[in-house]
Amino acid sequence: MSREAGEDAIAPAADGIVSRLRRRLARPGAATDADGDWPGAGGQRHRPAAVLVPLVLRETREAGPTVLLTRRTDHLHHHPGQISFPGGGMETGDVSAEATALREAREEIGLSPDRVEIVGHLPDYLTGTGFRVTPVVGLLRPPLALAVDDFEVAEVFEVPLAHFLDPANHRRHTLRVEGVPRHFHAMPYGDYFIWGATAGMLMSLYRLLSVAD
Q1: Domain-located, residue 33
Q2: Over the chain, what is the mean pLDDT?
Q3: How many domains does the chain have?
């Protein structure tokens, strides 16, 4: 990631979290498989996919990093209208999960790869729609100069990372789909209902950051 003069400085509240994140993502086994959000998903064949988990570091935000999220447009085939990370299925020419995540972030929200510092992966997440998603954690330092693809993305917004790290904001819900109970995480924030795979991956981030050194 390229850096401009003075860009290394970040708010003190972010410094400790970033150091902890780097340390824990570097541990062996940090990216072991997650359970996913569908019963028996581990026995299915899944298409590889990746998302970028973007943590925005701002010099003036004393509360710490924020998580950049998107709201998908209502006409999309997969997960219409849901809150998600930038990402999608791996394509021919993508040499890694990182390549997929960065390409999709550029296509969906105009995020230049040189604004992203990749620091590691969270556990893969298996979805009921048939994807094996690798969450790629990236640090973003403004300015970002985003250009949203309004065919796929209805909105881009940020949520304080502290919101997702507070267990008081964690919910667990159950739906019955074709007679089978489906359990999923949710982390509401204001008018945004963040649930499913996105909340599941945020739970992986919470678990990673909450364990003792």
Answers
A1: yes
A2: 84
A3: 1
The Cα–Cα gap between 54 and 135 comes to 10
pLDDT (tens digit, 9 = 90+) per residue, 91-136? 999 999 999 999 999 999 999 999 999 999 999 998 877 888 999 9
How far from chain centre, in Å, is Cα 42? 21
**How far, CA to CA in Å, does 55 sit from each of 12, 58, 110, 184?**
15, 10, 16, 23
Distance CA 184, CA 187 (A): 10
Q: What is the CATH number of the domain that holds 81?
A: 3.90.79.10
pLDDT in tens, 40-91: 555 567 899 999 999 999 876 566 899 999 998 867 666 667 899 999 999 9
This prediction's pTM: 0.87
Q: Is residue 61 part of a domain?
A: yes
Q: Which residue reads 């904001």 in tokens?
A: 169
Q: Find tokens 């970033």 and name the residue.
A: 18
